């Protein structure tokens, strides 16, 4: 079974040159989107992918650069695509705040009896640290990782052998001990703050302290508009580009 990833966006929260960090996981016949930030619907439009072609959306945490495009997706599935249902894969810890604190303001519509997240999406709650088959040929395990203190956020193991950090503070024990030594992941997608101190993200400086054999497996994502200045300064790691497709099989 084949599995590919296509980056919909590789930009950080405030990037203007690239769309918010997001990706499509593609099996032979299904597409699951990882996160859907505010600028991601425009990326889908550029790729001529209509909302009804997305079979599922997986959310890593609640920041606008990861969930800000969901209202548009929900409305368009409902009104432009004849109430098309799409799965929403989400940790239990995120489901209530996603609705109550982010989406309800726009999507709650008592006159149309649209009252809950389930009125828009087929919500599938993902357990932490358990591999779940989202569709044939695609399994995901979410693991809680540190991003903002006391705010849940998740990284992903995709088909056991790919690690997708989402937004994460530097965690070399996780990367070396679990991602490489225990699971032998062949591919790592890692967020990368290019300059300054990494209060809530991992910095390039921190990633450069990793052993070369770990760096070789890392694609850098979630970077700001200064990325071109850093080409050739990322050790054994490379920047993944917006709309790039990578084989994960
Ligand atoms: N405690 C925080 C919280 C947020 N932020 C910035 O806001 C952005 C929200 O999206 P992000 O991609 O998580 O990156 C966060 C920081 O840039 C930050 O710098 N410090
Ligand atoms: Zn982010
Ligand atoms: Zn974030």
Automatic annotation (TrEMBL):
Occurrences of domain Metallo-beta-lactamase (ranges): 19-222
A GO term for molecular function: metal ion binding
Matches recorded under InterPro entries: Metallo-B-lactamas, RibonucZ/Hydroxyglut_hydro
Pfam families according to UniProt: Anti-Pycsar_Apyc1
Reactions performed catalytically: 3',5'-cyclic UMP + H2O = UMP + H(+); 3',5'-cyclic CMP + H2O = CMP + H(+)
Signal peptide: none
Keywords: Endonuclease, Hydrolase, Nuclease, Zinc
Domain of life: Bacteria
PANTHER family tied to this protein: ZINC PHOSPHODIESTERASE ELAC PROTEIN 1
Stated role: Counteracts the endogenous Pycsar antiviral defense system. Phosphodiesterase that enables metal-dependent hydrolysis of host cyclic nucleotide Pycsar defense signals such as cCMP and cUMP.
Protein name as catalogued: Ribonuclease Z
């Amino acid at each position: 079974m084949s599995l590919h990833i296509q980056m919909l966006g590789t930009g950080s929260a405030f990037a203007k040159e690239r769309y918010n960090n997001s990706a499509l996981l593609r099996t032979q016949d299904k597409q699951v989107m990882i996160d859907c930030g505010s600028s991601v619907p425009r990326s889908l439009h550029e790729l001529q992918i209509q909302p009804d072609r997305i079979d599922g959306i997986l959310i890593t945490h609640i920041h606008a650069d990861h969930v800000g495009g969901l209202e548009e997706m929900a409305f368009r599935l409902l009104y432009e695509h004849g109430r098309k249902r799409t799965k929403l894969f989400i940790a239990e810890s995120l489901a209530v705040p996603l609705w109550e604190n982010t989406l309800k303001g726009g999507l709650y519509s008592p006159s149309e009896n649209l009252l809950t997240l389930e009125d828009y999406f087929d919500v599938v709650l993902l357990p932490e640290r358990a591999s779940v088959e989202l569709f044939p040929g695609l399994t995901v395990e979410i693991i809680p990782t540190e991003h903002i203190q006391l705010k849940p956020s998740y990284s992903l193991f995709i088909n056991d052998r790919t690690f997708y950090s989402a937004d994460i503070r530097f965690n070399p024990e996780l990367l070396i001990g679990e991602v490489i030594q225990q699971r032998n992941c062949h591919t790592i997608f890692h967020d990368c703050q290019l300059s300054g101190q990494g209060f809530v993200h991992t910095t390039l400086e921190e990633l450069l302290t990793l052993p070369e054999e770990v760096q070789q497996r890392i694609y850098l994502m979630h970077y700001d508009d200064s990325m071109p200045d850093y080409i050739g300064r990322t050790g054994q790691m490379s920047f993944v580009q917006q709309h790039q497709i990578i084989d994960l099989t």
